Amino acid sequence: MKNRNGFVSNSSSCSFTIENRSNECRTLVGFVAENPQLIEQYSEAYGEHNLSQLRLLYSAIENNIVFEANEAKKCIFGNEQGGLIGEVFDYILRRGGQSENFSWWFNNHLR
Asked: Using one digit for the tens of pLDDT, what is the confidence trace for 67-76?
């Protein structure tokens, strides 16, 4: 069980939409590579300073998702998916955002 800024997570997940806004096929690895600020924000918010962009990229390779050109895809991230990407994205994607080729937003909590 992890304590995160006043709430407790016990193997929950969250649903997000990640949209590939480009005219080319993209992957979750590309999303992570394009958004290094996400691991930095997570490290600052939760004091997890032993994390790195490289470790997040390896986790993305293990959990890779393909986004066709101009496709918005529902994705689920959380502790029970295992791996660093599930843990980090479960918390940090909730804010929503946009980068050169992607937009993302929070949908709902899953139990």
From this structure: 999 999 999 9
Query: How many angstroms separate the CA atoms of 85 and 69, rounded?
Result: 23
Distances (CA, A) of 99 to 1, 56, 64, 105: 32, 17, 19, 12
Query: What is the mean pLDDT of the segment spanning 11-27?
Result: 93
Residue 47: burial class (beta carbons within 10 Å; 0-12, 13-18, 19+): exposed
Phi, psi (rounded to 5 degrees) for 82: 75, 165
Half-sphere exposure of 45 (CA within 13 A, CB side): 17
Strand partners, 8: 3
- Gap between the Cα atoms of 62 and 64, Å rounded: 6
Residue whose structure tokens are 């918005």: 72
Which pair of tokens denotes residue 85?
């990407």
Q: Which residue has the tokens 């293990």?
A: 62
Residue 91's alpha-carbon distances to 23, 24, 54, 68, in angstroms, are 28, 28, 19, 25
